[in-house]
Queue: 4 jobs
Job 1
Amino acid sequence: MLLDIIDRFRSVDDAGKLRSIGDKEWQAACSQFELTLANERRPEKLEEAVLYKWSWDLPVDLKFSLLNQAKDAGCDTFEFWQDYYKYLAAHLTPSDSGFEMAFELANGKYL
């Protein structure tokens, strides 16, 4: 179910343009994603959504919600942690306190 909703963020409108934040379908997808995520507790489904190739297309706040819920649910594979730290490093600036460690973990230094 989460993967289907993630795919909605890549859908196009009637003019053939990718949907964006002002689009009603985009807003509906955000709401549905939040509701579905709040009810998903299975680590394997959460990890599947994290590792899904289009999950990087989620709005930043939704992707962080997904990552944190997956972490809290016990996801603990190398692939999960690498994606977790890659996303974290991509959204931190070099001057942020956790950037260096996130960057190193994203590249598998300590994993």
Job 2
Amino acid sequence: MKLIRRDKSETYIYYWQPRKRGFIGMRVSRTHAWVIVGNSKDPIQLVVIGPGPTIPVIEERQPSEFAAVRLEMAPGHPELERLLKGDITFDDALASPPAQ
């Protein structure tokens, strides 16, 4: 799932998916990405785990917890992986529709 949230100071793209218990995902800004977890179906209500790495993410420098979530999320969110690698820009991701 994908959601774009804009406020006065920042824009975030949320990518998240259900797990056996709760939800897991990533919140991405123009410069950083963070792991999000929790029980709410609303990704904005999920707990942000950080600090997150800068984008593009250098695989050798990403925290192990971030790498594990990234690996879990990659099959269902190819756009997220492309964004984290720097293959597409944040604006490209904002402009693309949510995956069906």
Job 3
Amino acid sequence: MNAPTDAALMTHYHTNAHQVGAACEGVAYGLAGALGSALIAGRMARAERDAADADEWRAVAASVRAGRIEAARARQAEATRAEAARQTDDEQRLRILMLRARAAAA
């Protein structure tokens, strides 16, 4: 009889099963590696995008800060002009009073 023995069949079966298992394991590791690489690349892209967004927000904040500083300087300049105008007005009134006092005394 040329029928294969049970031991020969079991050995061949186990060898194939191990080979199939190893192949599946290799494919699983490959997929896991690809997925890990994709996740890492996604994280890196998100980090770069977040950094770019942060830079843009810093630029916006700097612009807002510059606008606030400019507005504060404009208010200060306006207050200085108003104070100078009040002082000039007070001096003018004092001169008028002095002239009236001289006219009344004369």
Job 4
Amino acid sequence: MKFKFFILILFSTFILNESALAQCANKIDVTSEIDATTELGKITIEVTSDEEYSCTLLIETAEGETVVEEQRNSGNKTIEFSNLETGLLYSVWVRFPDSQNIICSSLRKTVFLKR
């Protein structure tokens, strides 16, 4: 009985989380590619928003995070970070400071640029 209750709580938490994120007006789509000749990477972020935001590219290591670059924009935009070293774990962090929904105020995706 306790196990069924636990599964029910876990399932409802997942559904509520998914439905809350589905209501976000702010969205990001992150893609990456590596140039075959230069072996340098590029990360492209498609931002869908009516608000102002900052987009930060970070490198994640065992020692912590290092900021590579930050851009500030507003509205729907395509942001590109290029000439990136491959073999590293990058994180894209987009913050919407004026967002009324706390869940939607910060979106983050991680990308590994394989060699």
